[in-house]
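Changelog note: in this version the structure field was regenerated for every chain. One regenerated record is shown below for reference.
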Amino acid sequence: MSTEKKEQLTSLFEQWSGGPVIEFTPLPPSGSYREYYRLKGTGWCAIGVYNSDKKENKAFIEFSKHFAENRLPVPEIYSVEFEKDIYLIEDFGNTTLFSYLSEIRGNKEFDEKVIAIYKKVIDVLPRFQIQAGKTLDYNNCYPRSQFDKQSMMWDLNYFKYYFLKLGKISFDEQALENDFHTFSDYLLGADCNYFLYRDFQSRNIMIKDGEPYFIDYQGGRKGALQYDLASLLFDAKADLPHKVRAELIQYYISAVKKFTDIEETEFIQMLFGYVLIRIMQALGAYGFRGFYEKKEHFLKSIPYAIENLSWLLDTVSFPIKIPFLTDALQGVVNSKEFFQISEARKVSNKLEVSIFSFSYRQSIPQDQSGNGGGFVFDCRAIHNPGRYNQYKMLTGKDEAVKKFLLEESDAEKFLSNVFTLVNQTIKVYISRKFAHLMISFGCTGGQHRSVYCTERLAEYLKSIPEIDVKVRHIELEKKDNS
């Protein structure tokens, strides 16, 4: 982010909150080009957004207002400066449905807690689609007001050019184009007069205090009910078991029937058509970000999507003739290149980030991975709470110390620079398939400032799915073992 945009977001926050910004933290980038920042003051917190696409900003702001009027759990819009492409929204924390899923589900049996949270999500979905969708002003939609034939052809051609071609899958272009038209006409046979969220997947659903909250619906438009359910249940890396999907499909049908009548058999048949177009849309995105933009972590989602595609081709028979599309899809499933990506997935390929706190009175932690490198940050320039009697027996994990460092020091400015530097390095390490990064924070006693900074960096990095974070507090461990 430019210094100008940072100053503009800071000014917007201070006008809204009536106080200074104490913490300005960049959030990890997502698949979009929007930039997100967490801004904190004394008693105030917000997510600052910068997005140069004014039409997309308008869609998000207007949809948010409408959904809030319908009592849907979406972020409150705090302040907006359209001309500067910035706005402030409510902060729901760092836990997405995907990270929640990754943390609590068991290795063998799918955890009932996960099924319960998915059911909470599904309870809300028809309220977006049907209840709020009835009175939504679709003139605010961007880039189109409907998921119509044109929108479908965009997604199908995105898949063709950014996945099939870049993935070196052979196909007859004209014959495939003809099948695209047949397939899209079939999908348009569904009732398409509901709100279609468009990207209703596990990274756009936040979990706070055990309840779901919803973000990133600015691409929404009018469309079929089936699309969003397909997005949720066949979200590639969420990797839901098929038995659980079947249970949740029935649960969704029951939830929808509270709002409108649907014919169950017809709904499910059409659902799998929308599952297929959603898988192709996702593969197109993975191909663009992975093959074209060379972002390695998008390629890691491909095997999960192909497993869903393989199951669909083996299980579902569509009442239309699309032989060339089917051949191309079988080519994806049987591809040796994609098989190699899939095999590589079976080996742990996450970047391990080890974060240490330590005392300079002792020694800097040694790298045990054999790779060398990494960062050592000296926290001794930060105002030391250990100088004050009331904090001497506490650590950087205690709330009183956290409050001191937040309000009485420049720790946040220090950490903002650390986050930017570490985030830049992690991007490169992931792209180059490095296995380990070591980061250490040192202070005089290894108890207050270094512990606080270690915990804050670990919390920041936790939302990046391509890394495993490990934390050690050297001096605190000594005390625990003494």
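Spot check on this record: The chain has three domains: 3-89, 97-345, 351-481. The domain at 97-345 is CATH 3.90.1200.10 (Aminoglycoside 3'-phosphotransferase; Chain: A, domain 2).
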